[in-house]
Structure formats: C-alpha cells, structure tokens
Amino acid sequence: MLSRLTRPRAVAVCALPVVALLATAAFAPLPFVLAQPGMTANVLGDNDGDPVITITGATTRETRGELRMTTIEATGPGTRVSLADVLDGWFGTDQAVMPRDSVYPSGDSTKEIEEHNAAEMKESQDAATEAALRYLDEDSGGIKVSLRLSDVGGPSAGLLFSLGIVDKLDGDGKGGDLTGGRTIAGTGTIDSDGTVGAVGGVALKTQAARRDGATVFLVPKAECSDAESELPKGLRLIPVTTLKGAVGALVALETGRGKVPSC
C-alpha cells in the first residue's frame, strides 16, 4: 500500500503512529518524581520549639554558628508525573527528575513509605550518636543523646547529627567551635564507625544550603561532581569520607592551619 502513495502522503501515514505514541507518553504517568531544594535545619538550634540535640550525663558547651542539615522536597508517591513534567524538570536548574524507586520504595503505600523513612531516620540517629561518642572516646552507657527533628525522614542527616553532638560536647577540642561562627551545611549518611556515605540530590541540597545562608557545604566525596554541577556562587565544597575527616577539615578551616580538602 505504501508503495503506491506519494512521498508526502507516505511520510504522513508513517508519522501517525509516532505522533500517537508521543501524545500517549505526554499524558501517561511515568515512574519518576520531581524534586526541588527543601528545608534546612540547624542541628545546634531548635526545631518547632524543641532542641534538635539534647544531651544528658555530660557537660555541654554553648555553640556559635550553625550546622545545617539539608533536604529535598519531592512530589508525593502517588503524584502523577507526565512527560511534560519530566521535560520541565530536566531543563530547570531548581528542579531534578529522579527515579521514583530512588526516593520511595517501590510498590509501598504512602503510610508504609512514611514508616520506612521514620525507621531509617531513627537508625541514622542511633548511628550518628554512636559515631560521635566513639570519636570522642566517651562512654555511650553514661551519656544519653536525644535527637528531635520533625517532618524529616531518611538517613541523610547522619553526618550533621554527629558533628552537632561533637560540637556540643567538645567543639574543636581546644575551646573553639567547629563552625568557627560560620553557617555550615552538609549532607551524608553515617555508620556507627564514622564512615560517611552518599545520599543523592546533592545539587538541590547545595541550593537549599546557600539560600539559608551557608557558605560551606560538606559533601560525601563520591558525590563531588554532582554537587559541582549546579553549585551556587559563594558556597565552598568540602568533600568528606569519615566523621574524623569532617571534624579535621572544619578545624583546619577555623584555625587556618592544616589542609582543607576540596572537590
């Protein structure tokens, strides 16, 4: 049949299925979420009227500056994301397109996802406390640490929780603050042995950090290139792999002595 059509007509006939597929794709839900810079919270301060970090069984110190954990905000697990939404996200600098499974466990209900994120946050807080007390050679049996941060789930605040505990108990080890009075932000999971892990969404988190006044951003070393891709002006990246390395980098930054790593 096509051999008897003129070339323009043949092209038109062939194009119809493609147009139909594109039209279907434009309106069909896709397995992605759209993310944007989220809230940040100073772990050395209060959140919703309560201290983020409360320590009993040891003397704590007054701190200056801020240690801000960072987040991303993603469309909900049941939100319909179309091809047009995805294209907008790809070409925007303040949005990112992420596979749904990288943000929400596949096939789970909203309630199950919330429970999963809450469990990950609790596990992260426990690991952060253990890592900080191990770093300080403190007895975890004699010191109790309570961490409260409402409306945030997942493990990505682990590094900042550990740094906050270290700052409240020991500062830079010589009477000064880890922050040096600066607003320092960052992200990263942490294991009980102090190992810092990657988290995802760092390009959006750097934007949230700079928006809220940070001048320094601690990033898992493996995610340096992602953090650099949309790095806001005035924000310095410091790559880290361990809690000890992060503390050392902040002390070097504060005192001007020693090497401060860079991406």
TrEMBL record:
SUPFAM superfamilies listed in its UniProt record: Ribosomal protein S5 domain 2-like
Q: Which GO terms describe its biological process?
A: proteolysis
Ranges of residues in domain Lon proteolytic: 154-236
UniProt keyword tRNA-binding present: no
- Signal peptide residues are 1-28
Q: Which UniProt keywords apply?
A: Signal
Q: Which GO terms describe its molecular function?
A: ATP-dependent peptidase activity; serine-type endopeptidase activity
| Origin superkingdom | Bacteria
The name this protein carries in UniProt is Lon proteolytic domain-containing protein
**From what organism does this protein derive?**
Streptomyces lacrimifluminis
